Write the structure tokens for this entry.
Amino acid sequence: MDSDTREQAKRHTAGNGRLPAVEVEDLTVRRVERGQHWVVLGPNGSGKTTLLSTLTAYFPPSSGTVRVAGKEFGRYDWRELRKRIGVVSSALKRKVNRPVTTLDMVLSGKEARINHPGDIDAADREQAERILADLQCAYLRDRPWTYLSQGERQRVMIGRALMSGLEVLILDEPCAGLDPVARERFLQFVDGLARRQDAPTIIFVTHHVEEIMPAFTHVLVLREGQVAASGPKGEVLTPAVLSRAFGVPLELTAAGSRYTLKVRLPEETP
């Protein structure tokens, strides 16, 4: 971020009195403003996992600065910062290694601990039950985690993330393993969550443009560890950008507020 951009950022913050949800200097994403919801899109090996690991302080940057709600990694207790960033991923779900109920899983989000909820009181339980009700999952309250469907687990993991009063919610390929109906139901759920006034900033990581819902405002496209394009959704999602990122000719179709992608591979000779 150059000096002019920094000065603009300072004036913006001073003008509205609000700190950005996420800032990353000299890395990949320069700034994620509150009220924006981003999609991180790219092929395997493009750098999506590394970027997420950096944002959650599991992979320190070689250079540059990462701030969450004005707090800088390396200058602030990273354990406290992680409570401000909720992550929903298949890797996180695999870390559950003891019998827990749905309510237990949500409660574990208070201290960002998967298998130990920490000190829980009546107020915490009431908050967890409110979150489950808000996510239309109250009926799952006492059901064992192992008996939940994939779609139910995704919703509960979001509830767990919301338990800590987070600033940023990262959904790392959350539709993996869902059948088409469950995937669409989950995407509609995420779209509704993003539209709420009290919603955290959502960062949605995916390979598929079909999963980009109307509520998402911006897109970051990665290719081989570099930024192929970044900015407002309507400006970034173009056939040229996506073809360059995925390395093959692609046709992008917009139907209403949703997208579909068609791959045009060269014909193979027998």
